[in-house]
Amino acid sequence: MSTVNVSFRLTDGRTFSGTMPREKVVHQALHVLLPPEVTHCRRLRITMPTGELIFPDMWLYEIHDHYGHCDFLLESAPLNEQHADFTNFGFDHVALATTDREACRRFFQDGLKMKCVRDDEHLLVLTTGVNALFFFKAEPGQPLSDGLPSRVHHIGFVVDNLEAAYAHLKATCPEYTSDFMLLERAERFSLYGTVELGGVRFMIQLSQIKPEYKGLKGDSAAPLKEFYDYAARDYGIRLA
């Protein structure tokens, strides 16, 4: 069976249903089957009729094989636009669309030694722990995407030895190019290089922090308690 029947029953009794390819995630079914008034500026919560919470990046085929169906309950409520102060704890992840995810995985995992915590048809996630790169396919019809490769200025990483990092990249990723010009700032030395992966040209900044500036101190360290540890386990929920 290459397709599954998917339905979303709202709390007001309305039901939206249709046929979806098995190799899609729930988010894609939301995108295809639900009208804008149900999803735009709304808070969505998806559950099975028995109460189990369903996440938008779960596979339809795994849900169907595990539960025997893809009939979901959907709570859709207006967003509560609170006029209140908030805190930005910093960079968590960058999500990019690419035409060649394998090239991205090889460069960032093998070259820059990031940990791969998810690599499947839907999503590639590479991480250093606190920070992560998400790679989606650049193709029409994907949720939250115009189908075009992303354009970024640069992605910055901190390493403990710039010369060693450069030698490793040069040996493992010949598509990475750099004039090996070390720029010194008050707190760091930085090396810039470029690489093109899946239609996206990346500028990569590698920085080595000077000893007297290393580490987070005082109030700057407190936000770390708010971050998710991407490297703790594989990213995304998989059903047995």
SSE topology:
Blueprint: E1 3-10, E2 15-21, H1 26-33, H2 36-39, E3 42-47, E4 53-54, H3 60-67, E5 70-78, E6 93-98, H4 101-111, E7 115-119, E8 124-127, E9 132-137, E10 155-158, H5 162-172, E11 183-184, E12 188-197, E13 200-209
Parallel strand pairs: 1-5, 6-9, 10-13
Antiparallel strand pairs: 1-2, 3-4, 3-5, 7-8, 8-9, 11-12, 12-13
Can you give keywords for this protein?
four-stranded mixed sheet, Ubiquitin-like (UB roll), 13 strands, alpha+beta, five-stranded mixed sheet, 240 residues, 2,3-Dihydroxybiphenyl 1,2-Dioxygenase, domain 1, single chain, 33% strand
Walkthrough of the structure:
- With 240 residues, this protein is α+β, with helices and mostly antiparallel strands.
- It has five helices and 13 strands.
- The strands form three sheets. A five-stranded mixed β-sheet has the order 2-1-5-3-4. The chain has a four-stranded mixed β-sheet with strand order 6-9-8-7, covered by helices on one side. It has a four-stranded mixed β-sheet with strand order 10-13-12-11.
- Strand 12 and strand 13 form a beta hairpin.
- The relative contact order is 0.15.
